[in-house]
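pinging the channel bc i need a second pair of eyes. not urgent but kinda urgent?? the chain im working w is below, pasted from the shared doc
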Amino acid sequence: MCTNKARSYIECCDLLGDSGYEEAKRILKMQFGQPHMILSSLMRDLTDRQPIRPNDSDALWDLIAAMKKCHVTLTKLGYTSDLNSTTNLLKVQDLLPSYLQTAWIKSAHDILTKENREPIFNDLLTLLVGKAEVSSTMFGKYLAESRSTNKKKQSQRQINVRSNHISSTSKPVKCFICDGAHKVYSCKKLLGGDYEQRVNMSMSKRLCFRC
């Protein structure tokens, strides 16, 4: 059931006969199963992720699943004090979009002032579950899709405005040969002359022969 480092630590237990299984469990618990190790591993899995984008309900549910895993496991181990530390709460808060951070700050303030206690990990988890359930309804998804569509339209409008501004402020096309409103390689006066005339016109206007 074990691989890599864990397997190498207990391979010798095969030689211990009936007591080998208990010895293997003791070694594994000592090397990998101590509460502070489990806390560190779970919190790393919880916080080592990209911040959640606004209205990304799938990413929010993934975060909630990891938070539930932390809460259930560490509560069973009796390690709730570390779970509820301000440091861990702030790490999770940093992953949230601004509107959820604002909702949590307000909720935490209400807990402090109305319930006269410090906010804990489960308070944040309960808040996020409620917000995620709302966003997963038909109306919540419709709102998220509408906002996404509006942002795309707004972005496209900004691109169009910038393009129009560049077009309006760019210099008009002017031919070097006849001063007409066209590129020099489309100039009828230049193209209408013979080879010697074209060379002389190009040289007199100091045009590039390479192109």
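so The chain is about 70% helix and 0% strand. and The chain has a mean pLDDT of 83. — does that match what u expected or am i reading it wrong
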